[in-house]
């Protein structure tokens, strides 16, 4: 579980609730079923109208990726690649079969299996880059869905306010009820803005960032695999891969 994300959500809620208290607003006004129906169901309807069924069915998995605290240790990846490169340099690529079978990283394992099997470098590169592009497309759709929902909910908040004001204008003779209905009308706007700009659009940005981290990790793996196949010196491979990494994560200590 990504605790940092949960902290961000909690801080957003905290800011709204404490802000209302400081301003003297009644926090119980947030308990508005009509506003919740307009915003949450309306936002889901916007998603259904924007994306096909196969994408909507992936929503639980998308949220799973979002809340999963998954890290891509490029330093460990480079160390693994260098270990394979050193053995390949001493004993040849075919000697790596045992080490390759023991690899836990499925992407690296698949690439190295193709190397051991003697596949053409261009074919290996094409196959692995196609896998990266497929991943980018899937993750890009997930991020776009969050941003679509996030851009829809504030507008639905305005719609909820309009609906509430229509109801209020129908009760102009009841001053007490009028004030309550006007207050409730703007709860939908609060819901919509909060859901869009504090939750959903940031979720989309976070998914895009997670996707980029995974893509960068896979690109480092591809470079390492092709370098091993071409028989490059492990020191050369290390310099090449370090150039693709965040300076703070490099194995050479140059930060």
Automatic annotation (TrEMBL):
<dbReference type="GO" id="GO:0006935">
    <property type="term" value="P:chemotaxis"/>
</dbReference>
<keyword id="KW-0145">Chemotaxis</keyword>
<feature type="domain" description="MotA/TolQ/ExbB proton channel">
    <location>
        <begin position="101"/>
        <end position="218"/>
    </location>
</feature>
<dbReference type="Pfam" id="PF01618">
    <property type="entry name" value="MotA_ExbB"/>
</dbReference>
<dbReference type="GO" id="GO:1902600">
    <property type="term" value="P:proton transmembrane transport"/>
</dbReference>
<dbReference type="InterPro" id="IPR047055">
    <property type="entry name" value="MotA-like"/>
</dbReference>
<keyword id="KW-0813">Transport</keyword>
<keyword id="KW-0375">Hydrogen ion transport</keyword>
<feature type="transmembrane region" description="Helical">
    <location>
        <begin position="155"/>
        <end position="172"/>
    </location>
</feature>
<dbReference type="InterPro" id="IPR000540">
    <property type="entry name" value="Flag_MotA_CS"/>
</dbReference>
<comment type="similarity">
    <text>Belongs to the MotA family.</text>
</comment>
<feature type="transmembrane region" description="Helical">
    <location>
        <begin position="29"/>
        <end position="51"/>
    </location>
</feature>
<dbReference type="Pfam" id="PF20560">
    <property type="entry name" value="MotA_N"/>
</dbReference>
<keyword id="KW-0282">Flagellum</keyword>
<dbReference type="InterPro" id="IPR002898">
    <property type="entry name" value="MotA_ExbB_proton_chnl"/>
</dbReference>
<keyword id="KW-0472">Membrane</keyword>
<keyword id="KW-1003">Cell membrane</keyword>
<protein>
    <submittedName>
        <fullName>Flagellar motor protein MotA</fullName>
    </submittedName>
</protein>
<keyword id="KW-0969">Cilium</keyword>
<keyword id="KW-0406">Ion transport</keyword>
<keyword id="KW-0966">Cell projection</keyword>
<keyword id="KW-0812">Transmembrane</keyword>
<feature type="transmembrane region" description="Helical">
    <location>
        <begin position="178"/>
        <end position="200"/>
    </location>
</feature>
<dbReference type="GO" id="GO:0005886">
    <property type="term" value="C:plasma membrane"/>
</dbReference>
<dbReference type="GO" id="GO:0071978">
    <property type="term" value="P:bacterial-type flagellum-dependent swarming motility"/>
</dbReference>
<feature type="domain" description="Motility protein A N-terminal">
    <location>
        <begin position="6"/>
        <end position="91"/>
    </location>
</feature>
<keyword id="KW-0283">Flagellar rotation</keyword>
<keyword id="KW-1133">Transmembrane helix</keyword>
<dbReference type="InterPro" id="IPR046786">
    <property type="entry name" value="MotA_N"/>
</dbReference>
């Amino acid at each position: 579980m990504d605790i940092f994300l949960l902290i961000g959500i909690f801080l957003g809620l905290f800011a709204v609730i404490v802000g209302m208290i400081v301003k003297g607003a009644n926090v119980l006004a947030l308990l508005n079923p009509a506003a919740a129906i307009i915003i949450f169901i309306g936002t889901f309807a916007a998603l259904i109208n924007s994306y096909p069924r196969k994408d909507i069915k992936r929503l639980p998995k998308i949220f799973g990726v979002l809340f999963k605290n998954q890290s891509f240790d490029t330093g460990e990846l480079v160390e693994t690649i260098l270990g394979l490169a050193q053995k390949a340099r001493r004993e040849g690529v075919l000697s790596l079969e045992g080490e390759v079978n023991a690899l836990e990283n499925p992407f690296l394992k698949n690439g190295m299996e193709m190397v051991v099997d003697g596949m053409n470098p261009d074919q290996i590169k094409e196959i692995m880059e196609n896998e990266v592009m497929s991943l980018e497309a899937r993750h890009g759709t997930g991020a776009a869905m969050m941003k679509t929902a996030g851009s829809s909910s504030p507008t639905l908040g305005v719609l909820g306010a309009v609906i509430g004001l229509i109801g209020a204008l129908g009760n102009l003779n009841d001053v007490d009820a009028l004030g309550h209905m006007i207050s409730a009308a703007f709860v939908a706007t609060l819901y919509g803005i909060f859901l869009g700009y504090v939750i959903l659009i940031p979720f989309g940005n976070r998914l895009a960032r997670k996707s980029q981290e995974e893509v960068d990790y896979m690109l480092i793996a591809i470079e390492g695999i092709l370098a091993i196949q071409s028989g490059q010196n492990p020191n050369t491979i290390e310099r090449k891969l370090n150039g693709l990494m965040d300076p703070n994560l490099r194995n050479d200590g140059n930060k």
